[in-house]
Amino acid sequence: MSGELSPIDKAKFVAAKRAVDYVEDGMRVGLGTGSTAAWMVRCLGELVREDGLRVTGVPTSSRTAALARDVGIEVVSLDEARWLDLTIDGADEFDGNLNLIKGGGGALLQEKIVATASDQMIVITDAGKEVEHLGAFPLPVEVVPFGWQTTKALVEEMLVSVDVLGRDTSLRMNGDRPYITDEGNYILDLHLGRIGNARQLSMVLNQMPGVVENGLFVDICDVVVIGYGDGRVELRDINEGTVETDRLEFVEDDNLFRDLTD
Ligand code: 5RP
């Protein structure tokens, strides 16, 4: 129930609710991963079930696929859809150019492939994730398990020559074992503090053997929908150079607010 939501959850919910207004009948939609994206999948499912909206969803993780099917969205693979009209996803950080850090939820590889195969990427977020410089949130880097310690050492060595504040790296764990992505890889979290040149860092990382992909999304996001705990929403479109504001009412809805586990 909305009365039990924290201000952050309300912010995530209104951002998600407003973002599904971008979805039109017949669209192929990339479905992001994480708690904000889960709200979006639920809101979209409601439109499918109650308004008869026809959409095909391409999930960015096994978690999102399960939720999407649960709420009534037809799920297909990216290879079946080929190209998408829109992807809606959360982020861990975004800056003034709508560059992002993603992958806090461990799904950055599929998220980046899906967002890049979309005409438009919309990021849904609360205001607390806006930063002047990316990097306070640890940068996730997906690496193959083979030789991961060597890859980690090489990444640390490489960081000496780029514009970052910190250079600590850690293997993401799931209890006492390495966290395993949907693609069977590991994640290194890079504690950089501040990233001076996100484009350069992204390119250098992706040239390293053992690195599969990194969580920097540079020039991929088109629109950010920022939610606030009081129902306000701000929509920034980087291509149009526009900023719009809106306000959403919280309507108690058992279907949307029940059993949210992501
Ligand atoms: C998952 C992600 C998420 O979008 C990011 O971690 C934000 O998550 P949340 O909406 O739960 O704050 O990149 O890999």
Can you walk me through this structure?
This protein has 262 residues and is of the alpha/beta class. It folds into 2 domains: 7-130 and 219-247, Rossmann fold (3-Layer(aba) Sandwich), CATH 3.40.50; 139-214, ACT domain (Alpha-Beta Plaits, 2-Layer Sandwich), CATH 3.30.70.260. 29% of the residues lie in helices and 25% in strands. It contains 8 helices and 17 strands. The chain has an 8-stranded mixed beta sheet, sandwiched between helices. β1, α2 (35-51) and β2 form a beta-alpha-beta unit.
Summed up:
It is built from 8 helices and 17 strands. By secondary structure, it is of the alpha/beta class.
Tally of DSSP helical segments: 8
Poorly predicted ranges (pLDDT <50, ≥5 residues)?
none
Tell me the strand percentage band.
Answer: 25-35%
Would you tell me the overall average pLDDT?
Answer: 95
Gyration radius from CA atoms, angstroms: 18 Å
User: What is bound: which ligands?
Assistant: ribulose-5-phosphate
Whole-number count of domains: 2
**Anisotropy-based shape:** globular
Major sheet summary line: 8 strands, mixed
CATH class category label of the largest domain: Alpha Beta
- Helicity range: 25-40%
Measure the end-to-end span.
16 Å
Physical arrangement of strands within the biggest beta sheet: 3-2-1-4-7-15-16-17
- Secondary structure class reads alpha/beta
CATH architecture of the largest domain: 3-Layer(aba) Sandwich
Number of strands: 17
Reported by name, the CATH topology of the largest domain is Rossmann fold
Element-by-element helix/strand order: HEHEHEHEEEHEEHEEEEHEEEEEH
